[in-house]
Amino acid sequence: MSTFWSIWISVIVLGTVFGCWWLLLATRKSQTTDTETDKTVGHSFDGIEEYDNPLPKWWFYLFVATCIFALGYLALYPGLGNFKGLLGWTSTNQWEAEVQQADARYGELYAKFGDTPVPQLAENDDAMRMGQRLFANNCSVCHGSAGRGSLGFPNLTDDDWLYGGDPDSILTTLHQGRNGNMPAKGTMPNMTNEQVDQVVNFVLSYSGREKDAEAARQGKEVYAQACVACHGPEGKGNQALGAPDLTDNTWLYGSTYDWIRETVVNGRQNQMPAQGGRLSDDQIQILAAYVYSLSN
Predict the structure, then answer these.
(1) pLDDT tens-digit profile of 123-140?
(2) Who is most buried in 89, 116, 126, 197, counting CB within 10 A?
(3) Rounded Cα gap, residues 204 and 274, in angstroms
(4) Which among 296, 54, 86 is positioned nearest to 170, based on CA atoms?
């Protein structure tokens, strides 16, 4: 944050606190007595009038205490621009401290499973209960609580895997993450709209769903130029690249003509964030076993 904005924010925050304090004291001094009177502020609504009486003392002192608390809080914690507070607190260092406490408390529980092979670990009920909680906290927001995925997020309960569903592939995915990239119009950026229609019909012909048989026949040549490098000559995909199999009924972004056309024209970019650094190696081992168990 620049010095200007730091000063600007500090002035607004402190001005608000001291302004409230001044308003309390100014209105308090304007009262000549703390006793109730029949004097009103001079207006009424539906026959209801507001009496011009001072605040009760306990209420007044509560407001004053609130202002004092606010100043104390701003002195100890960040809230005045670039001033970090006398305690040096940040949300990051608090999170790191809580993670260290959790590691110290639960680390031994995870460690006893860290050296167990994934297939064997997937048969351990205690490990799977831990894995389910790790999955719920770190994976369910994208893949769903049951691991069935949604549009753009793979289903982890079937046997169709973009990068492989064996233990080593799952561990690599969790540790390093994945960056999926389907370039717009594949490797043929000058593809015309007619050629887009042809290649979409050709892809649909793998499952006998082409809308135009002649367009599908012509699309084979377009496919060979634009798509074969990733998806292979038979459309079976390539797990080394994360290129999906186009011949089955599993589609990450929809299998209708319109969905496939949008994929071809605009491409797709997707990311599976790396869990290495966020989770310990032992936690990733347990999580991998849980993911493995969903489809095995």
Answers:
(1) 999 999 999 999 999 999
(2) 197
(3) 33
(4) 296
Query: In angstroms, rounded to a whole number, what is the distance separating the alpha carbons of residues 273 and 276?
Result: 9
Q: What is the mean pLDDT of the chain?
A: 92
Q: Which residue has the tokens 């389910």?
A: 132
pLDDT tens, residue by residue, 148-162? 999 999 999 999 999
* In the block, residue with structure tokens 């009496």: 51
Between 57-76 and 3-29, two packed helices, what is the crossing angle to 10 degrees?
160
| Residue 285 falls in which region: left (phi positive, over 0), alpha (psi -120 to 50) or beta | alpha
Give pLDDT tens digits for 36-83.
667 777 777 787 887 777 778 888 899 999 999 999 999 999 999 999
| Separation between Cα atoms, residue 161 and residue 242, nearest integer Å | 8
- Whether the CB-CB separation of 155 and 149 falls below 8 Å is answered with yes
Alpha helices, H only, 30-178: 57-76, 91-111, 118-121, 125-138, 140-143, 167-176
DSSP-based three-state secondary structure for 40 = strand
φ, ψ of residue 289 in degrees (nearest 5)? -65, -40
User: DSSP readout, 209-223?
Assistant: --S-HHHHHHHHHHH
Task: Write down the pLDDT at residue 286.
Answer: 97
